[in-house]
């Protein structure tokens, strides 16, 4: 009003701009192309993608969506085109195998590295199942068991370092960087047959090509171009932040997001160049009986003429991150919960002392009930991948929880929310209670329908066996060797929510229980 009175032209421009912007939000809302107007949700979420973006940026998406479900009910609208379901029964409707099931949404496009799709980013069902078939035999339970010996070795090196640096000095420390080194080293060993050496050097600085375009040139000899040292853990974190935030944006805003998040986008290129460099080094040292993923992959595709190293590179970029980020944060969470609950830690100590042999045997580790219960409870309570993995309803539409959704609608069931459902887990789903997983002989435990840390169906986690074996071994080794306490028992676990929940700090103290290393 004031501006109009002062200058009618400025006032007119402002009023018109405001009306156009408002119409831009309200016209799609009233046109309702996805027939979602009847579903409740925050008003801003119904008319604009800004709400979901804000929730993403806040780093608290899982808690906010969980709260919104409590407020508005089991089926809510979280963006103009997206619906979230909180009932565990919706999980199989959305994600299980089936003819007319939903496919991955455009959210996954942001995760495509070097311009090529991989098993994680393929949205076409046919392409996804081809890629999945090719990788399937590289992730068997047998391979996971074999790899557990390497996990033992690398973990024991880390625990030796803790013993000399922190037990002797009785000092508390942040275990996050250490466990980041451990998880990345293990994944490097699994993929390339050799760790990045981060645990040994107690540093995340690794050599990468100075010019990433050269690194990505699969024809360039890897040892002939100049390198620089990069901080691998910060590069991986920046890359994940970028992928997640650009992923949340609607397709026509993704280009803008890429410009705004230039620095994080660069991290993505640097990481791709680094992995390409490692892959080229690995390809230049052939082995006859390979025990790494690259070697096994090459044996498989040997007969195929159309093999391109770039397509293997694209898979490796994803596997290295998917396999390290998830296990790293899960292990830190397990350490935190056990350090906080002295009863649970003592029960675990007793079980490990009674049954765990040295050298560590895979079979004993697999059959330790309390260890298994601690791991399940961590994966439930922490929920390493917390969000409703976004799926697009196929053209012909689909039924979810008895409701029909039209083609193009995005749907998801937040894993964090079903992991905290009071109807399944009881009154205090926010508590760490490993006992809930132990059958006392009376109750029949039936949590499978509401326990989905690795998701379900054709795109569920391919590394599930690997992750479970690795985590069991690492938790067992850590607690066989040390008694762990939190520096400040009142400290909450500091978490940021991205695609994978990220622990930002966890300060602990360690006391020796066992002299020598178990490897
Ligand atoms: C605690 C550890 C882990 C958790 C909680 C976890 C969780 C998940 C989840 C929920 C998905 C589905 C994602 C989606 O549909 O968008 C997934 C997919 C995937 N995970 Fe894991 N993961 C873990 C460890 C691993 C490991 C160790 C590897 C590899 C070594 C791995 C490799 C993958 C790959 C390649 C996919 C894509 C599969 C596909 O789309 O077909 N993950 N993971």
Itemize the secondary structure elements and their pairings:
Elements: H1 2-6, H2 8-31, H3 43-47, H4 50-58, H5 61-72, E1 75-79, E2 82-85, H6 90-95, E3 103-104, H7 125-136, H8 141-167, E4 173-174, H9 175-192, H10 198-201, E5 205-209, H11 212-216, E6 227-231, H12 232-248, H13 254-260, H14 262-283, H15 293-301, H16 309-340, H17 342-355, H18 362-366, H19 369-382, E7 391-392, E8 398-400, E9 403-405, E10 410-412, H20 415-419, H21 422-425, H22 464-481, E11 482-486, E12 494-497, E13 501-505, E14 507-512
The structure holds protoporphyrin IX containing FE.
Protoporphyrin IX containing FE binds near residues 120, 318, 459, 466 and 467.
Structure keywords:
alpha+beta; Cyt_P450_E_grp-I; globular; binds protoporphyrin IX containing FE; 519 residues; iron ion binding
Question: Could you walk me through the main structural features you see in this protein, from its secondary elements to its overall organization?
Answer:
This protein is of the alpha+beta class. The chain contains 22 helices and 14 strands. The protein has helices at 2-6, 8-31, 43-47, 50-58, 61-72, 90-95, 125-136, 141-167, 175-192, 198-201, 212-216, 232-248, 254-260, 262-283, 293-301, 309-340, 342-355, 362-366, 369-382, 415-419, 422-425, 464-481, and strands at 75-79, 82-85, 103-104, 173-174, 205-209, 227-231, 391-392, 398-400, 403-405, 410-412, 482-486, 494-497, 501-505, 507-512. The strands form 5 sheets. The chain has a 5-stranded mixed beta sheet with strand order 1-2-10-7-3. Helix 9 (175-192) runs antiparallel to helix 16 and helix 16 (309-340) runs parallel beside helix 22. The N and C termini lie far apart (76 Å). Bound molecules: protoporphyrin IX containing FE. The site of protoporphyrin IX containing FE has 23 residues, from helix 16 and helix 22.
